[in-house]
Amino acid sequence: MSGWNLTGRADGAARVAGADDALSVSQAVELAAGALEALPQLVVLGEVTGFRGPNARSGHCYFQIKDDSCAVDCIIWRGSYAKRSFDLRDGMQVHLTGSFNLYKATGRMSFVARSFSLAGEGLLRQQVAALAEKLRREGLMDASRKRHIPVFCTRVAVVTSLSGAVIDDVKRTLRRRNPLVEIVCVGSKVQGEGAPAELIEGLERAAALDPAPDCILLVRGGGSFEDLMTFNDEALARAVAACPVPVVTGIGHEPDNSICDMVSDRRCSTPTAAAESVAPAMGDLVDVLDARERRMATALSGSLRSRVDALDGAQERSARAWRTLIERFELSLAAAAARPCLADPSWMVERRMADLEQTAERLAASTSGFAAKRHRLEMAGARISQQGRALVASRKGELAARAASLDALSPLKVLSRGYSIAYGADGVETSAARFAVGDDVRVRFADGTVSAEVTGVAVDDS
């Protein structure tokens, strides 16, 4: 079998193989597999399509690589894909380095790539991906910063080329869906040199309109990846994110996704879809109004029922409260009516008269013993008076004797007999030696005091 080649002839044979030389399927596949393995390692340039991977279980990647006229299945094993510097995606132009392989169970040929790198448009895609990652890290793609766009926009600014079919399509869509929407067109290049700068200026002019639009549509028709590169410009993407008016993008077709789409407040797949998203159809508005009317009617009915139930409950509670109050008043009235003073007003007077008579009787009984007690009181008073006079008389004589003794010993009594008392600086002085010439002296007599100055001192030697 090893003598066969890819032409189906035996080595060195010049004849075509006949029925006797037929191969089994296994032999034919084995022959083809050997021929493929004999091929050298190849570098293949093509576009990635149908990319699937890494497989959740095996980690391998499966896809096709194609050019304008041919496509071939490709496989990248898990170990080779783990060494990648970027992720493969559909549409990338890549160089794949590897060899062909034949899966013998199915006879299916695949190109097994051991390494890959970007080429041509793929390099542009890598640059776009790097810029997208940069802006994502800065937070320009966060859902939290995306602004709310009214469900029904009454004024819409459209930034696009005024010479293409896109603007006509947007106008037609808006008028068809809702003729009440006011459209303001701002012309700008959407492709080629200077297009990003013109689009930035167009956004600024649209945002500066007075009155301001509810939103801005940034749209353009489909094209190649290179045609749409304008909308992957960093300055334009930052202008979209910083625009004071919400921006809705509709760039290219469904698979296309530019950086402007990522940072805008709403991304739509096409210009028509963008126009439809900001102008609900009149029929849809009617349906919405009908639904809201039904919800409002239901809410009002529910609210009315709850209010009626609340009113019925309040009425019932009020009735119970009034019944309780009336029953309480009836009990109070019955208790008052049962009182004797109200049933027979003379009863109170008669009761008071009986009480007064009883009090008079007790008073009379209590005053019957006053005479005897008064006599005993008078006798006791007489005895006390007599004993008091006797006691006072004896004390009076003793007091007179002691007063006479005190009077005899009183210094004033001595002074009345002609004596006097001399006072110096330190008080009473009993010796002439206590004075010196020039000292002040005060002399006390029975009827007064004399102040003088010592002019001479004579001390008695005896």
Average the pLDDT over all residues and give the rounded result. 84
Instruction: Describe the strand arrangement of the main beta sheet, using strand numbers.
Output: 1-2-3-5-4
For the biggest sheet, the summary is: 5 strands, mixed, barrel
| Spatial extent as radius of gyration | 66 Å
Q: What would you say the CATH architecture of the domain at 127-143 and 152-280 is?
A: 3-Layer(aba) Sandwich
CATH topology tier name of the domain at 127-143 and 152-280: Rossmann fold
Number of helices: 13
The CATH superfamily of the domain at 127-143 and 152-280 is identified as: Response regulator
Strand content: 15-25%
Helix % is 40-55%
Low-pLDDT segments: 1-16
Instruction: Give the termini separation.
Output: 185 Å
H/E element sequence: HEEEHEEHEHEHEHEHEHHHHHHEEEE
The shape, in one word, is elongated
Overall CATH class of the domain at 127-143 and 152-280: Alpha Beta
Judged by helices, strands and strand pairing, the structural class is alpha/beta
Please report the total strand number as a whole number: 14
Describe this structure in words.
By secondary structure, the chain is an alpha/beta fold. Among the domains are: 22-119, OB fold (Dihydrolipoamide Acetyltransferase, E2P) (Beta Barrel); 127-143 and 152-280, 3-Layer(aba) Sandwich (Rossmann fold); 282-318; 415-453, no CATH class. 45% of the residues lie in helices and 19% in strands. It has helices at 25-37, 78-81, 121-137, 165-177, 195-207, 234-242, 259-263, 271-278, 282-337, 340-343, 346-367, 370-409, 411-416; strands spanning 42-52, 61-66, 71-76, 93-103, 108-118, 155-160, 182-187, 215-220, 247-251, 266-268, 421-424, 427-428, 440-445, 448-453. The protein has a five-stranded mixed barrel. Strands 7-6-8-9-10 form a five-stranded parallel β-sheet, sandwiched between helices. Strand 2 and strand 3 form a beta hairpin. The chain is elongated and about 190 Å long.
